[in-house]
Amino acid sequence: MSGFRPGTGGSLYRKILKSQEKEIDRKRTNYRFDRSATEAKIVNTGTVLQVGDGIARIYGLVEVMAGELVEFEEDTIGIALNLESNNVGVVLMGDGLMIQEGSSVKTTGRIAQIPVSEAYLGRVINALAKPCAT
């Protein structure tokens, strides 16, 4: 019987094991407890890599959904649209002037949506379904 069987002492085996350990550590550090809530919940967090022209590139949001609302430290809301293997492209729904490289971002678990009801009939709303002053 022939075939490739890596030994436990080989350099390839050590490289694979080390990369898996790093991935586990990275995923473990991207979750934080939200202590402001009355009950503990795990929050998926990331870090701003780059920001400009209403777009932010985020590293570390491992379980973000396409179209999910994310919240920056500065209370700016964004929508995760471009999901890549190592970063997420987020469209900012505010001026984002206070957002800088290294700022923290957390997922909300909510998808961007506009409610439909008679309360919204004839009203002018923004992209986050908040009524605008008319």
Automatic annotation (TrEMBL):
Domain named ATPase F1/V1/A1 complex alpha/beta subunit N-terminal: residues: 45-109
InterPro entries: ATP_synth_asu-like_sf, ATP_synth_F1_asu, ATPase_F1/V1/A1_a/bsu_N, ATPase_F1/V1/A1_a/bsu_N_sf
GO molecular function: ADP binding; ATP binding; proton-transporting ATP synthase activity, rotational mechanism
Domain of life: Eukaryota
Key words of the record: ATP synthesis, ATP-binding, CF(1), Hydrogen ion transport, Ion transport, Membrane, Nucleotide-binding, Transport
Signal peptide bounds: none
GO-annotated cellular components: proton-transporting ATP synthase complex
Family affiliation: Belongs to the ATPase alpha/beta chains family.
PANTHER family in UniProt: ATP SYNTHASE SUBUNIT ALPHA, MITOCHONDRIAL (PTHR48082)
The protein's name in its UniProt record: ATPase F1/V1/A1 complex alpha/beta subunit N-terminal domain-containing protein
Protein source organism: Lupinus luteus
